[in-house]
Amino acid sequence: MFFHQDATFQNLSIHRVGNRAQDEFYILSEQPIDLSQSEDLPPLLMQYFMHPFAKIKEVYNFYHASGDLILNEVFALTKRFFEGRVEFHQYSESIAKFLYEVSNRPKIRGGELYIVELNNVQIEGEEHNAIGIFKSESKEPFIKIEPIHGNFQIGYDRNGINIDKLDKGVIIINSEVECGYKVLVTESKNIQDSVSWKDDFLNIIARNDSYQQTANLLWVAKEFVSGKLDEIYEIEPAAKVELLNKTIKYFKENETFELEEFKEEIFGDEQTSQLFSEFKENFESEYESEIPETFQINDYATKKAQSSFKKVIKLDKNFKVEITGKSDYIEKGYDEEKGMNYYKLYFESET
Questions:
Q1: Which pLDDT score, from 0 to 100, does residue 70 have?
Q2: Cα distance between residue 4 and residue 70, in whole Å
Q3: Structure pTM?
Q4: Is the distance from CB of 133 to CB of 53 less than 8 angstroms?
Q5: So what's the pLDDT on residue 305?
Q6: I need a labelling partner for 171 at 20 to 30 A (CA). Which of 4, 26, 122, 275 fits?
Q7: Rounded distance, CA 127 to CA 69, Å?
Q8: With contact defined as beta carbons under 8 Å apart, do 250 and 264 qualify?
């Protein structure tokens, strides 16, 4: 999972890149943007750049057909920057020039290119610094109203940018350099030249490894038990916790995930198993991230996910009941005299 809530801007440079096939040009700025003069602009930019990545779970790596990563231009340039061999603005200029060189398909539109150095982005439970490369191509008119001398003045701009509609973006996480870095990518559904962005410019392949597969399946299981089951059955919180505990136990005790075996062991009945399969398929379709029916379980991903699995039932502000085993030993009832719910716990000994 990718989180940017604690991320901060270190540097930002903006250039303009046109379509080389249309004899357009690129325009390079002379220096990075000074964001220290505005309190409002940085959070708006952070929303513009990062919001599209909120649901992205697919992680990519840079790639080159020869097997030599250094021949991937964006990887090589970024590696030089992360290693401190080139300063930020010079790096941003090189990225803009390379994007221009590969912008030679007829449907590519010119636009502003933002290169951002980020601190404190989090992926898979670890914080890293990162590079963000974003491009805005679509422009929209917007109206601006201002009060002036007891009246209102209305104005407009034909070339405004909607901060809820980023056209293209990539975040390069400074992690796993030997594999081609961890790379997140997004594009607007209205963009018609995704081949250019992903293949010509970035040249990336999906990192559908055991970590990603384990993390995704655990996320699907947690969301299914915590939310989807409530839409179908009336299931008590204790029973939900037991299902989550059984899920984690399965991943901790097995080296290989087998979908049919998992459904039989966790859910037991055919109807719930079928619902889980459908929920998994919807996840794969929505996030464009396939989870194989069989894969090697990643212990590190299991440990990371375990902390987010609910084991505690909170009862008002007075009690917390932690369930680590079967829910058969906990019984829920209602006391008519007191007008309150209660839990009854069964045990053999106390320590």
A1: 96
A2: 28
A3: 0.65
A4: no
A5: 84
A6: 26
A7: 24
A8: no
